[in-house]
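Our preliminary data section would be incomplete without showing what the modeling component actually yields. Below, a chain of 699 amino acids is followed by its predicted structure, encoded as tokens that our downstream tools consume directly.
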Amino acid sequence: MTKNEAKIKARELVSQMTVEEKISQLVYNAAAIERLGVKEYNWWNEGAHGVARSGTATVFPHTIAMAATFDPELIETIGDVISTEGRIKYNQHVKYNDYDIFKGLTFWAPNINIFRDPRWGRGQETFGEDPYLSATLGSAFIKGVQGDGEFMKACACSKHYAVHSGPEKTRHGFDAIANPHDMYETYLPAFEKTVEAGVAGVMGAYNRTNGEPCCAHSYLLKEVLRGKWGFDGYVVSDCGALRDIYAEHHFTETKAEAAAVSLKNTCDLNCGETYSALVDAYEQDLITEDDITVAAERLFMIRYLLGEFEETRPYSDIPFSKLDCKEHRALNLKAAEQCPVLLKNENSYLPLDKGTTKRIAVVGPNALSVTALEGNYNGYSSEYITVADGIRRVFTNADISVEKGSNYCDESLCHWSGFQNMISDGIATAAEADITVLALGLDCSIEGEDTGFDNDYTACGDKKTLYLPKTQQKLAEAVCDVCDNVVVVLMCGSAIDLGEKVRNHAKAIIHAWYPGAFGGLAVANILAGVANPGGKLPVTIYDGEHNLPDFEDYSMLGRTYRYIDGDALYPFGYGLSFTTYEYENAKLVSADEKSLKISVDVKNAGERKGTERVQVYASFTDSRTVTPHFQLCGIKAVELDAGETATVELEIERYWVKAVTDDGSRVDPDGKTVIYVGGHQPDAVSDKLTGYSCKKIEL
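Predicted structure:
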């Protein structure tokens, strides 16, 4: 069904509804209209890295972990599996008349906000700190979820529009101030590009941006999204965000006024209950029936595109046996092996001998943690393999011991029922071991979405420091004192500095993110060399003492690799491998008004098969406006056997090699543009860490 056909059918259906019936469809738990054959429908579903909150489903690595693959094709494949499993579950829900929350086909994912500050607790839900990476991987995810068939397989939604990335504690009343330059260079491109990619939905953010609530923003919604970009899908509020308009932002005095200003500014669907006041708004002449009708038609267009009203429902022939099937589990493990970033590997300490008979200690709060596999916005796997479980499975001849050693944050030297003082056991286990795997990090109870509480380490889910929590730092340093051979496996959704002592002592450091249900097996396979790590950092890892701008300051100056003040500890785009890659013959193949095409020869110069993440960056000199140090503008994942060389071609859209002026316009740069090609960012720290420099192409 084409979009125009769906629009016509939606218009015909909505024309038969009363005003009250139309209003009943503008809330996430839309009511049934039996006389018209309309079943109830709950719009609220989640699928950031697997069908969430609704029974068994494949739990893939979380979004920030997927971002570390720098691989749009893999992300699109994952999106396709998510919608396949979503259809399987939806078919059964319909069969058994189950129209409850988290049972529909409208997934409120992906989160394409820019992870501008490493303290933000929800950064784990994003594709990282770069607008190009977020736009490219977000678009790939959307294409995978929605499919390219006659009907949408499922419905994706880009969120949270716009200029949203903390702080969590004040998000319901906060005003994010962003100048036009930062708005159009950093905060809006991923939304623009996912609209171009055909995303069906857009979710507004909780906060205000430049004075107006995002879910009722006359400029962002009406002028930019609907006008400039021509978006004709549906807009949904974040959950409870319309209440914030009158209760927290005090932008209106009444609920009816908040409902009216949101609807007038093209927010079609309310996740919450504020649109219950649309009847009052209509009776007070704050809105017209046409305003209500337009929103209802857009929502039913989506439901027609999903095939809800077809006599034979599309995708109803997908067998239930495809849910959590062998193929999906294999893809999940592959993804989990592609996500970890090898930050350090002193003297090629890794991989370990898979057949070793040595004593391996697995110590730390994430040694046996399932929540650290899941991240947040997660589904429920039929099987979880923790780090300790994975090491037991892979190193079958080794003598393996496991100790938690500490909690994530809280420590008490005398706590009779809480098992909070475990450090001596952790140290003792490490002291007896030949090798200690320190499984450190966080989970979504520590960093996450508006946890509602503060402690020494976090404020409502946002970190207060770039270091580990003190109790883990104490454990890690003590382990380093008693064990020579320490490998750190860090599982969290953000950038953390392990501290100088641990960084210097550890033989190897792996950032494994929240790696999904099979993350522990993936980590063990990497430790044993069964898998070759190839992930790249989608965020900057700063030194713990780095002087970051104020968390509430939305200026990009001093933020991310693009505007960092000083050096990174581990730069965006960086990541080691068990093999090495060489780049030669970088050249411009062709150029026109829309794009550039470049090519480069990439050789696997090592002795192991691996996947290289080719990265292309642009830099500008003598520009009339502020420009980034470097701007990522091309990526491609290339699998190479040992000794193999491939000629890699990348097409670079001109959009990403333009300068953004103070008024937000994209223009051709005034001075020289230099293109860099390599396996990392072309900065001095990356060059030092990897031992080679990127190739240059001057335009």
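The chain has 21 helices and 25 strands. Residues 534 and 577 are 5 Å apart (CA to CA). Preliminary results of this kind motivate Aim 1 of the renewal.
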